[in-house]
Specification:
CATH architecture of the largest domain: 3-Layer(aba) Sandwich
Number of helices: 9
Helix content: 25-40%
Number of domains: 2
Radius of gyration: 18 Å
Order of helices and strands: HEHEHEEHEHEEHHHH
Bound molecules: S-adenosylmethionine
CATH superfamily of the largest domain: Vaccinia Virus protein VP39
Distance between the termini: 48 Å
CATH topology of the largest domain: Rossmann fold
Mean pLDDT: 95
Length: about 220
């Protein structure tokens, strides 16, 4: 039986996940990430959770199909509440494929249950808010990746316990991305520039993006 393939976004989430005894997938839905982490033996056991019982059933069926259900704990729960009363320490938790406002709310409302576990996060929107929330709960951004899947860009983050302070520009564009300027950086910036240029009241953000798109002589790095 062929195991489900991960697209670039979920593969990046799997790559950023800690190899561990016990991981958690919050908002697991189809369950592909947990399935991969168990099958690849990156994780020995997974807490697979979703606020929707119907969504969680999809994950349950996938695990059963691949005979992995004995290494999974399934919980219908709101966000990190899934970790409450859990036997065993979660070492890493993924919260992917949700909006930034929701991820931020999930983190703020129950971060005490994390017990220092690393986080793998991917929000479709409001990424700066997620970074800011991490600093508010005593976490910092340890790694960031840009991937392209199904024709759009995604930013994935690995966050770890330990405080950090970021400038507004770092919150907006990503502290690790700004330092490392990964392969898709320029294309990502050009895409963001196009989006932000159409919005009113985002002149500062447009300036930050354009600062990154010029070389030391002030010429656009994307000019042909
Ligand atoms: C778009 S799916 C993402 C699935 C998978 N994590 C991914 O990245 O491909 C979002 C899932 O989050 C779940 N969800 C939404 N709010 C949630 C919450 N507060 N706690 C747990 N899961 C939630 C939804 O039910 C849905 O199954």
């Amino acid at each position: 039986m062929r195991y489900p393939q991960l697209d670039e976004r979920l593969q990046a989430a799997a790559d950023l996940f800690t190899a561990c005894d016990f991981g958690a997938d919050i908002g697991a839905d189809h369950g592909r990430l947990s399935c991969y982490l168990l099958h690849s033996e990156k994780c020995r056991k997974m807490l697979v959770s979703d606020v929707s019982a119907d969504s969680l059933d999809k994950a349950r069926r996938l695990m059963k199909l691949h005979q992995l259900e004995e290494r999974a704990v399934f919980r219908v729960a709101n966000g990190l509440e899934a970790l409450r009363g859990m036997e065993g320490t979660i070492q890493c938790a993924a919260i992917c494929g949700m909006g930034g406002q929701l991820i931020s709310k999930i983190l703020l409302s129950a971060h005490g249950l994390l017990g220092g576990a690393a986080l793998v996060l991917s929000s479709h929107t409001d990424i700066p808010l997620v970074r800011k929330t991490l600093t508010e709960i005593g976490y910092h951004v340890a790694q960031e990746r840009i991937v392209r899947a199904k024709g759009r860009f995604y930013v994935l983050m690995r966050a770890e316990s330990g405080s950090a302070a970021y400038s507004e520009k770092e919150l907006y564009l990503g502290p690790c991305l700004l330092k490392l300027k990964p392969p898709l950086w320029q294309q990502y910036l050009m895409w963001r520039e196009g989006v932000v240029a159409c919005e009113q009241g985002h002149e500062t953000q447009l300036t930050w993006i354009r600062e990154e798109l010029v070389d030391e002589t002030g010429n656009r790095t994307d000019a042909v």
